[in-house]
């Protein structure tokens, strides 16, 4: 949990709030990922156990074990029913999960955040940046958000470079709280829908 984000808080009109909640409830697929189900607990635990995946992410269950990963998935099923959160997994078949995306939505501010990770065998080849760009577009278009707010640890150079490179704006620093109560300092970035759309239109194809 991170108190104090998003930094920018413009109350959304009630119709947009309801549209966002409905879109979250109806979501089924994000790029090549599907919604996580409780029986993904073992496969997701295997992915999250990779130190290169779990070290930079404050929002993962702690202690990290299969039972808590199952609760994490079940909690996201409940978040989706409220129209406030989604958990997607990239299912490689045979119980192997190669990536996950954890989307938090603040319908009242038409804002959202995504945390996630890829299997280490996929890191540093450009696929994270490509997948994140598709996901941001999806969050603005399919979920009707106006603002995306992202955080990264002070040591997470890859994510920092990714967000700076995409034109996100640095908004300062906040304290993120892990599920076990320990804290971590996080840098914060934001990007608005109109600026994102304009940047995508002007990208060379
Ligand atoms: C974050 C993550 C999704 C990024 O995906 P990726 O495919 O590894 O990253 P990319 O290859 O697209 O690289 C992104 C930027 O980092 C740079 N980079 C990649 N590997 C790097 C490394 N080992 N050291 C320094 N910079 C690196 C790239 O050059 C690129 O910057 P540039 O556009 O300025 O050249 C992935 O690394 C990951 O899953 N990490 C673990 C979990 C995590 O940190 N999640 C984010 C916080 S929620």
Element layout with pairings:
Elements: H1 14-26, E1 29-30, E2 33-35, H2 41-48, H3 51-54, H4 66-82, E3 85-93, E4 96-106, E5 111-118, H5 127-141, E6 147-153, H6 157-165, E7 169-177, E8 183-192, H7 193-201
Parallel strand pairs: 5-6
Antiparallel strand pairs: 1-2, 2-3, 3-4, 4-5, 6-8, 7-8
Helix pairs in contact: 2-4
Bound molecules: coenzyme A.
Protein name: N-acetyltransferase domain-containing protein
Organism: Hyphomonas adhaerens MHS-3
Pfam families: Acetyltransf_3 (PF13302)
Description:
This protein has 205 residues and is an alpha+beta fold. It has a domain at 14-148: Gcn5-related N-acetyltransferase (GNAT) (Aminopeptidase, 3-Layer(aba) Sandwich), CATH 3.40.630. The protein contains seven helices and eight strands. It has helices at residues 14-26, 41-48, 51-54, 66-82, 127-141, 157-165, 193-201, and strands at residues 29-30, 33-35, 85-93, 96-106, 111-118, 147-153, 169-177, 183-192. Strands 1-2-3-4-5-6-8-7 form an eight-stranded mixed sheet, sandwiched between helices. Strand 7 (169-177) and strand 8 form a beta hairpin. Helix 2 crosses helix 4. The longest helix has 17 residues, at 66-82. The protein is globular, with a radius of gyration of 16 Å. The termini are far apart. It binds coenzyme A. Residues 52-53, 56-57, 115-118, 123-129, 152, 156-159, 161-162, 165 line the site of coenzyme A. Pfam families: Acetyltransf_3. Residues 34-169 form the N-acetyltransferase domain. This is N-acetyltransferase domain-containing protein.
């Amino acid at each position: 949990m991170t108190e104090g984000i998003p930094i920018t808080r413009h109350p959304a009109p009630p119709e947009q709030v309801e549209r966002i909640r409905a879109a979250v409830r109806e979501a089924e697929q994000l790029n090549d990922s599907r919604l996580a189900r409780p029986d993904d607990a073992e496969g997701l635990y295997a992915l999250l156990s990779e130190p290169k995946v779990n070290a930079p992410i404050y929002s993962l269950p702690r202690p990290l074990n299969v039972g808590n990963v199952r609760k994490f998935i079940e909690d996201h099923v409940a978040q989706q029913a409220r129209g406030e959160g989604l958990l997607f997994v990239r299912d490689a078949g045979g119980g192997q999960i190669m990536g996950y995306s954890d989307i938090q939505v603040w319908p009242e501010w038409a804002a959202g955040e995504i945390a996630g990770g890829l299997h280490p065998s996929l890191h540093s080849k450009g696929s994270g940046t490509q997948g994140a760009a598709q996901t941001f577009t999806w969050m603005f278009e399919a979920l009707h958000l106006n603002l995306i707010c992202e955080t990264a640890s002070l040591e997470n150079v890859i994510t920092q470079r990714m967000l700076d490179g995409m034109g996100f704006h640095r908004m300062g620093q906040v304290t993120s709280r892990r599920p076990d109560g320990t804290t971590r300092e996080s840098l914060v970035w934001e990007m608005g829908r109109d600026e994102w759309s304009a940047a995508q239109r002007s990208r060379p194809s």
